Amino acid sequence: MAAGTTGFRYPLFVRGDIDGFIGLFIDNLVNLLIITGLCLGLGMPAGLVFGKILPATAFSVLSGNIFYSWQARKLAHKEGRDDVTALPYGINTVSLIAYFSLIIAPVYMHTKDADLAWKVGVVSCLVSGVCEGAGAFMGEWIRKITPRAALLSTLAGIAISFIALDQTIKIWDRPLIAFIPLALILAEYFSHAKLPLKIPAGFYALAIGSAIAWSTGAMDPGALKGSLKTVSLWMPGFELYGALTAIGLDNIVPYLSIAIPMGLMSFFGTLQNIESASAAGDSYPAKPALLMNGIGTIFGAAFGSPFPTTVYIGHPGWKGLGARAGYSIINGAVMTIICFTGLMGVIVAAVPLEAGYPILLWIGLVITAQAFQTTPVKHAPAVALGLMPAIAAWGLSLLRQFVNREGGLGAAEVNAAIAGALPHIKGILVFSEGSLFSAMFLTAVGVYLIEKDFLRAFAWTIPLVVFSFFGLIHSSEIGFGMAGMVPLGYMFFALVMILLYFFNKHNKMEMVNK
Predict the structure, then answer these.
(1) SS3 string of 305-348?
(2) Residue 74 CB: number of other CB atoms within 10 A?
(3) Cβ of 251: how many Cβ atoms within 10 Å?
């Protein structure tokens, strides 16, 4: 049906919204688990975690889910299409880990003041949100000058490692629980096979996986009973004014070097996700999507969340599930109910996450495939190059977990231990840092080398020099010259590009003269 056709209706909910919701919900649920476990494990009181942090985080997620669902409906009516899928939105996993590890935990360990650590995190989250929103005014321009392969390969690297592979290894750890859900998910989404009663595969996966887990004794009845203690009414309140007045500049300035780059990374990540949606058929205007990304984080900070939210990787995956706009609304509503009532602990104790991991595996595979399928075939080597930084980052995360399995080591000590034990691969400590940026820049260089456009390849080497010099890539710390000799190496790399440009230009002129 053409745009503007009288009588066009875009449905509130469709069958695919159920599967889309399950995938998005599990992703957000895992993040809520991380928040709860880290904060309580650090020593923060349950009243602060369940009474302030989680409700504010859910409020932030709900605001974004409502907006992106509305934006999908607007695009559907504009283009007269009933297959438009809303951008997925939720808690920013990378920022979550960074904010806890580099801001909240250090403040708490230094002061033993949970309230101060939380408030410093809230103000840092506010700063990040402002940076995210400010990027909206240059998003379309960046989108136009950046090759599609550079945007999509970055997402593909994260998808194949942190979304797909990270969940796949957990499936094989508990095969009795996860293999039937895995078979159902792959059967429906790979072959489009119809399941009995027209019930979505995602629902079957969770139901059957849970039944198997409980019948085989894999679940803990005591944990389920204990989780009921968290059930209560927890309503968020406006916390930003109290946070701003309770801390001084000396509390927040040391952490701006984390909050600002994380905001910029979220901006670039959202820009890449918008391009991913466009490649899947849903071309959203960048400015409102980017602006809401920042507003959602600011909104969460205002009510007490120290963890930014963002547009998620995975739009093509959720679109492939048949989700439209309804899955976003369902996710926001369910997340709000869980966090406002303390039911999150009960759900986690009752449903094995392994039953839902196959959905995340599917989404990771679809995103990775998209990076190759929707870019020119000859750009495939550049796309493959863009996968490598994220895969390295995933490998480094495993190494760090192993080295620091007993806890108590600082980041510098962990890195030194890895370099000492594995000197032949110590370059992973440099290569994997700032993978979101370096993947995009390196892929862009690769694209223009394939096109024999050496001047543009040179131009995309410049951000590699600048970002590495300031420690935004190839360094675990922000500052001047933090990446060692890497910026100088990139300068030599850039010199080769510009010399190739002039050499080829000279050869072309000679051929024309002949």
Answers:
(1) CCCCEEECCCHHHHHHCCCCCHHHHHHHHHHHHHHHHCCHHHHH
(2) 16
(3) 17
Beta bridge partners of 325: none
Any bridge partners for residue 176, and if so which? none
How many CB atoms lie under 10 A from the CB of residue 465?
18
Rounded to the nearest 10 degrees, what angle do helices 357-373 and 166-173 cross at? 140
pLDDT tens-digit readout, 246-275 = 887 778 877 776 787 678 768 877 888 898
pTM: 0.74
Q: Where are the domains of the chain?
A: 16-375, 386-408+418-513
pLDDT in tens, 297-356: 999 999 999 999 999 877 888 898 899 999 999 999 999 999 999 887 788 788 888 888
| CA-angle at 322, arms to 377 and 57, nearest 5° | 100
Beta bridge partners of 89: 311
Which pair of structure tokens corresponds to residue 22?
A: 């399950």
Among 117, 97, 134, 65, residue whose Cα is nearest residue 304: 117
Nearest to 209 by CA among 184, 187, 232, 241: 184
